[in-house]
Amino acid sequence: MRPYHTLLTASSGIYQEWQTRVFHYHYQRMKAADRCGEVGGFTRLLTQPAGARTDGLHGVMRTVVVAELTKGEDLGFVVLNRPHSLQVVLRDGKLDHVTEKFVLITETD
Fold first, then answer.
1. How far apart (Å, rounded) are the C-alpha atoms in residues 107 and 7?
2. What is the distance between the alpha carbons of residues 76 and 68, in angstroms, rounded to a whole number?
3. Torsion of CA 47, 53, 57, 60, to 10 degrees
4. Most exposed residue of 15, 49, 74, 79, measured as fewest CB within 10 angstroms of its CB?
């Protein structure tokens, strides 16, 4: 048995919030059906503008927030926030709650 932690990268915004809700729903279904105990915990890695208000999903699922890259830092390629956010949380120790040996990194798309 090799449990893994699911890490979902997501940006702020209505569309990403909807995609995250759908993804989390299916994660919960898979975890409930997992007889081998391989599906471990779940964390949403959310990038949002510095100082932005939290969305309604913080109370639904574990969420770690990282300030998104500013215009110019993202080189005009907004999806650079995905690897950037992962780099930040690993550097800052914001994933210390993850106890599984393996991590499945996913995205809302």
1. 8
2. 13
3. 120
4. 15
pTM of the entire structure? 0.90
Secondary structure class of 105 (helix, strand, coil): strand
- Which residues face 50 on adjacent strands? none
Q: Which pLDDT score, from 0 to 100, does residue 70 have?
A: 85
Whether the Cβ atoms of residue 51 and residue 12 lie closer than 8 Å to each other:
no
Q: Please say whether the beta carbons of 37 and 1 come within 8 A.
A: yes
Q: Are 66 and 49 in contact (CB under 8 A)?
A: no
Q: What is the amino acid identity at position 72?
A: G
Tokens standing for 98?
């993850």
